[in-house]
Amino acid sequence: MRRGLLFMSAVPAAVLLLAMAQAVPSQAATTHRQAGTEVQVSSDPFHNTGAEHATEVEPDTIAAGNDVMSVFQTGRMFGGCSDDIGWAFSSDAGSTWTHGFLPGTTPSSTPPGPFSAVSDPTVAWNGKFKEWVASALDCASPFGVSVSLSTNGTTWTNPVVVARGSSFDKEWVTCDSTSTSPHFGNCYVEWDLPGNGLLVDMSTSTDGGHTWSAVAHPSGGGSGIGGEPIVLPNGNVVVPIFGGSGGSSVTDFLSTNGGASWSGEHSIASLDQHGFAGGLRGPMFPGVGEDGAGRIYLTWPDCRFRSGCSSNDMVLTTSTNGTTWTPVVRIPIDAVTSGVDHLGGGIAVDPSTSGSSAHLGVYYYYYPNASCTASTCQLDIGYVSSINGGSTWSAPVMLAGPTKLSQIAATSGGRMVGDYVGAGAVNGGNAFAAMAVGKASTNGQRYNEAMNDVSGGQPIVGGKRPASAAGAHTFSAHVPHIVR
Description:
Radius of gyration: 20 Å
Largest sheet: 5 strands, antiparallel
Number of helices: 0
Helix content: under 10%
């Protein structure tokens, strides 16, 4: 089943690698190699009756040097948004963690803030101003986008408003941290307007996130959802997004002048996605990473290599300029006949590596059985990696699970772990991604869905499983329109 476009208006908002045959006989379900030690990096401390406690969902994770930062929703609300934005920080490459919650956001935050709820957190590192920049949607009237700033990873400013309006969704922030770039220190935020045909907005800051430019749009008024901007070493900004009509294809748009203007959309690929069983609200949006030479790696869940679009693989394409992209290849986690559904996740790229020696790690959620039901689905977390730029891949690792759908937050859009997962890698080291994991409830709470990572990160290793562009089918492209 292909997932159709889903509208929820009550709460406006979710190289060329041609190798051998794509079905490798030895590929089995994601259970073979032993994972690192799972560690809980945060939990939901709030108790107000307006949210589903104890729940944490929708994480983004980045690394800068040996520092790792994750942000996520805490106290997910059924109708949309959450009680506050949580953060988890490690200054020693994931050996130890501290965590807390952004100040000045909602009545639950310390100090209390003006927004009724917050949602869709992402985080960037600004190398010029030596600060973390966390973005979020402000679920208030009017809606908006804001950023919070931290120079030490543990204390944060109150939110700085980026823009206000009647309808915002799926914002993402990135910053230019290349010292030789003509726009070194610029930060860019992207979001879409579900109440205005998914029109895409952009805003730029040149002063470390304290002030933001007037809203700009892709040339021709581009639309889409789930965009994730990334900056090339030359300062050009590339924004991969599920674009086209209603988010029906993978596209991107660029700025070559520090955000003063934006190009029209460039086509990357068609989009074919199998609908997640059990009504799960899981990560279907793109994951983006960049190597030390500026090659962009773009991954998402896609069913084009499976007969009848029966389940999803994780797929990959790359680009050095944002205008031309390599053919979409299948990451060979298991055989195309396995019946496993790979639900999406994030890609981590070691910034000290590049090209044919680039180190990549992909975290993803998956169902061992794509045709499960709400009562029988078992949600697991897996990981694969490559040390040759994605040409060949390791055997998969099972990191966590199984989770029952009844153990994760109930929302108007389905049981939820998040619409996206961000991932990052430390220099010359391991890959990280905070992931929502549901477990048996404790202490009288309805849920026990907290943020978890692998202690010290997951090693990026090589393997002999070849990626391939062979065997792709053509289906009618669809992607859900997910709200906050």
